[in-house]
Amino acid sequence: MIIIQLNNRQLKIIDIVKESEPITSECIAAKLNVTRATLRSDLAILTMTGVLDARPKVGYFYSGIDKVNLLGDKIKNKTVADIMSMPIMVTQDTSVYDTIVNIFLSDVGSVFIIDDEKELCGIVSRKDLLKATIGGGDINKIPVGMIMTRTPNVVTVTSEDTVVLAAKRIIEHEVDSIPVVEEVKRDNTIINKVVGRISKTNITKLFLEIADN
């Protein structure tokens, strides 16, 4: 079981709610001499994990739970393979224009760049493509390989990795999605072949499914 470790401010919030429930976020912020914005993440964690109960136009109540199973067995053992999506990929010689069309038709935040045997070469985001379009060049002639972030500067996971690890990497590197790769042998060398993608959306859907159940 994974137990959430509450920080000092979150513990103080719990004590305040216990003493004065129901209490609004404005009142909690005033008692702690901080802004409501400062408390937003703390209150989100405490309500998401069930320590506090929030009722619109009423305030926060204490739910009587001091230690909460944050992820639980349902998510702790989930692997990337359980929730990953099909990867959106183009080759290095694909034009920036065609990549833009691909990324919007697929409604994704980034595209993985591969060679002819699906080995990961790099990644390009919407931000990268926007920079290319305002750079003044002919995006019909510029290959996407010229603007991509190249390996090994691309963070990856394998299908056997846990969802928790994938979520940590997405947050730490501030990206929309990361490629799922598997090592395969090619010409006596090991390459990273792209087999999927895992994104913030995949992880959010998993949380919602667990919450609904």
TrEMBL record:
Record protein name field: Transcriptional regulator
InterPro entries per UniProt: CBS_dom, CBS_dom_sf, Diverse_CBS-Domain, HTH_11, UCP026546_HTH-CBS, WH-like_DNA-bd_sf, WH_DNA-bd_sf
Domain of life: Bacteria
Residue ranges of every copy of the CBS domain listed in the record: 83-139, 148-213
Keywords, in A-Z order: CBS domain
SUPFAM superfamilies (UniProt xref): CBS-domain pair (SSF54631), Winged helix' DNA-binding domain (SSF46785)
Annotated transmembrane regions: none
Pfam families per UniProt: CBS, HTH_11
Keyword Protein biosynthesis part of the UniProt annotation: no
